[in-house]
Write a structure and sequence with these properties.
- Two copies of one chain form a homodimer.
- Chain A folds into two domains: 7-62, Arc Repressor Mutant, subunit A (Orthogonal Bundle); 80-197, Tetracycline Repressor, domain 2, CATH 1.10.357.10.
- Helices cover 70% and strands 0% of the residues of chain A.
- Chain A has nine helices and no strands.
- The longest helix of chain A is centred in the C-terminal third of the chain and has 28 residues, at 122-149.
- Chain A is elongated and about 65 Å long.
- Chains A and B meet through α6, α7, α8 and α9 of A and α6, α7, α8 and α9 of B.
- Chain B binds a DNA duplex (30 and 30 nucleotides) through residues 5-6, 8-11, 14, 35-38, 40, 44-49, 51-52.
- Chains A, B: Residues 12-72 form the HTH tetR-type domain.
- Chains A, B: This is AcrR family transcriptional regulator.
- Chains A, B: Residues 35-54 bind DNA.
- Chains A, B: Pfam families: TetR_C_11, TetR_N.
Chain lengths: 203, 203
DNA sequence: CTGGAAAGACGAGACGTCTCGCTTTGGTAG
DNA sequence: CTACCAAAGCGAGACGTCTCGTCTTTCCAG
């Protein structure tokens, strides 16, 4: 009954090699042409070793991305969402960093592949959202909560909606490539989200 | 020399059957498992008839979606983007209709498949954006242009950015399934995009 | 000596091409 | 106007190829 392999005997060396190879390969050939055989070959690993521990290449890539996100956090000496008291400046700072990541092929390829795969495979999408996305969203929401407490936002502001007003348009441009992602874009986005576009003086 | 088949002799019956079958099948098995052989079988058509007129399954699905969008327009007696003079009401009306489409399995499956495929295949994504998305965006932009001319928006409003502030968050929720899509959601979105979230009275 | 790991053989199934008659089309001769 | 006929698309499906995920074998570590 090969249903439940013994995790205690699992080779950590193989596990890391597989995750690394998956990230490299998805950047080289894209998600569609990413193949478990190629991952196994690049990692110097038997195919069965991958099939034993992961149900699909999407699952491999999700684990690889989780590891990548963990690495990125530590290596950037991440100290949490900035809070200088200036909400607009803090948001612009973080969104600029996000734009830089989206423009970095190293992060773009796996993120794009996972997002696309998650859109069509609900189960994968749920794990992707829960494990990678939600923790990020919570950071934005916490910063907005502080701002609302400080009276910088309309008291009944829907914080989750506001987070989506920031990340939605950004993600939209990124996924659909309707226009290049720039710092100027996210700066303008923050200003308009906070200020709105209606002509208040004309009211 | 089979390079250039004679389009005037093309069977419209087969063409429609193929596009219909593609839409049905993508809903049943998803884009990844969608196969040209299956489309041909379902449509009661020879494989060669598909290969003769389309270069890939992506192209078939794109054409099918274009046809679907065209049908939806006519059957809804679409008369163009509403312009009652009340910008907020018009936007809410259109976004509610969009939510209804996203919640309709018939439209959801192909749209989701195409969006996801376009995200990882740049060439397909470009054609998807250009032929299906941009025409829609232009309608929003035109309505916003009218509003700006009428002094209902801040004079230097970036219209494209504003369109993305409306569709970005909606698309975000739709693709990532972070929360259900409701009319209440889009209504709130319109209000916040127009009005912003910053506490103006505290300035 | 138990069980994961590496290597690769294996069957399944989709690919894109092809061949085969059948049907449709559009031009031509009577 | 009708009858004929060549040309081209059509439905069906066989074909060789490729890649998938599983299965088998051998090896090695604890």
């Amino acid at each position: 009954m090969p249903k439940t392999p013994d995790a205690t005997r699992r080779s950590d060396r193989s596990r890391r090699a597989i995750l690394d190879a998956a990230l490299v390969l998805v950047g080289e050939v894209g998600y569609n042409k990413l193949t478990i055989e190629a991952i196994a070959a690049r990692a110097g690993v038997g195919k069965q070793t991958i099939y034993r521990w992961w149900p699909s290449k999407a699952a491999v890539l999700l684990d690889a991305s989780l590891a990548l996100a963990g690495d990125a956090e530590t290596e950037a000496e991440w100290t949490g969402f900035p809070d200088t008291g200036d909400l607009a400046a803090d948001l612009k700072h973080v969104l600029r960093a996000t734009v830089d990541e989206f423009n970095d092929e190293k992060y773009d390829a796996p993120a794009r592949a996972l997002t696309a795969a998650g859109a069509t495979e609900p189960e994968l999408g749920a794990r992707f959202t829960e494990q990678l996305l939600e923790p990020q969203l919570a950071l934005y929401e916490a910063r907005l909560h502080t701002a609302r407490e400080a009276g910088q936002l309309v008291p009944d502001t829907d914080l989750r909606l506001t987070v989506e007003m920031l990340l939605g348009p950004l993600t939209y441009r990124w996924l659909l490539r309707t226009a290049p992602l720039t710092h100027a874009y996210t700066d303008a986005l923050v200003d308009r989200v906070l200020g709105g576009v209606a002509n208040v003086t004309a009211r």
